[in-house]
Design brief:
Chain A has six helices and no strands. By secondary structure, chain A is mainly α. Chain A has two domains: 30 residues, no CATH class; 105 residues, Up-down Bundle (3 helical TM bundles of succinate and fumarate reductases). Chain B has a single domain, classed as 3 helical TM bundles of succinate and fumarate reductases (Up-down Bundle). The chains are: A mainly alpha (139), B mainly alpha (125).
Chain lengths: 139, 125
């Protein structure tokens, strides 16, 4: 390999061409096509869960505290809300990451924004999960 | 440099803004908006878990004029991002890339988002 790379321009070009016919590594973000698939699978999940939640908002008898906790405490609704929370957080995290990568270029702020987004999404997810579980258990 | 009076790229004075670009930007804007909405959604759950008084405080804020405008905005953002997201999923299968198809699906998505938002708030009232 080293020998070929040190050879003539033709040899080097040939070597590179032979390697790059198929993408093999995890890519510059070190995540391969995982994020691409994650974004689309969470999108499909959110289509179903989002429409279910919208339907729930329409059919809920009201929005005072008793109505809200009765809705959240129902086992199927609690499971639906947990799934919605996780899919939403994941999809949102991937989307915000792309936006930051596209528009925030200053090196320090770029990394700081990505870290802040990751922490914010983790904290919000935990807040939502804790709240759903607490209401569901009725503690 | 002489250009013999010919228009210079990118011809901004004669450029017609395509509807597909508007939707592309709206998809990002609504996506970021919905990420902010995730905060409010989590606070709604947290408020409900925290008890009657905290929940009432949250609902008072969201029931204000500003809160209502934000809720209508989030509902539109949701229905738009959902509809246009489906458009993107169709594109992912390699279909719908002809200019006429992309323009038609753009208008369809825009109208669907407005209609779904209107129907949602009509059903809420």
């Amino acid at each position: 390999m080293v020998c070929l790379a040190r050879g003539s321009g033709f040899d080097r070009d040939f070597l590179v061409a032979a390697i790059v016919t198929r993408a093999t590594g995890p890519g510059p973000a070190n995540a391969g096509t995982g994020d691409w698939w994650g974004q689309r699978l969470s999108a499909i999940a959110l289509t179903l869960l989002g429409l279910w939640f919208t339907y729930s908002l329409v059919t809920m008898p009201g929005f005072d505290h008793a109505d809200a906790t009765a809705f959240i405490a129902s086992p199927w609704n609690a499971v639906g809300l947990l799934l919605l929370c996780v899919s939403l957080a994941y999809h949102s995290y991937l989307g915000v990451q792309v936006v930051i990568e596209d528009y925030v270029h200053a090196p320090g702020i770029h990394v700081a924004s990505l870290i802040a987004s990751r922490i914010a999404h983790a904290v919000l997810t935990l807040i939502a999960i804790f709240s759903i579980v607490k209401i569901g258990i009725g503690a | 440099m002489t250009n013999n009076g010919r228009p210079l790229s990118p011809h901004l004075s004669i450029y017609r803004w395509p509807i597909t670009m508007t939707l592309s930007i709206l998809h990002r804007v609504t996506g970021v908006g919905l990420s902010v909405g995730f905060i409010v959604w989590a606070l709604w759950l947290f408020g409900a878990a925290s008890g009657v008084e905290v929940y009432a405080g949250f609902m008072a804020i969201m029931g204000s004029i500003v809160g209502k405008i934000l809720l209508v905005g989030w509902s539109f953002a949701f229905f738009f991002h959902l509809s246009n997201g489906m458009r993107h999923l169709v594109w992912d299968t390699g279909r719908g890339f002809e200019i006429s198809q992309a323009n038609a699906s753009a208008w369809f998505v825009l109208l669907a988002a407005v209609a779904l938002t209107a129907i949602f708030w009509w059903l809420q009232s």
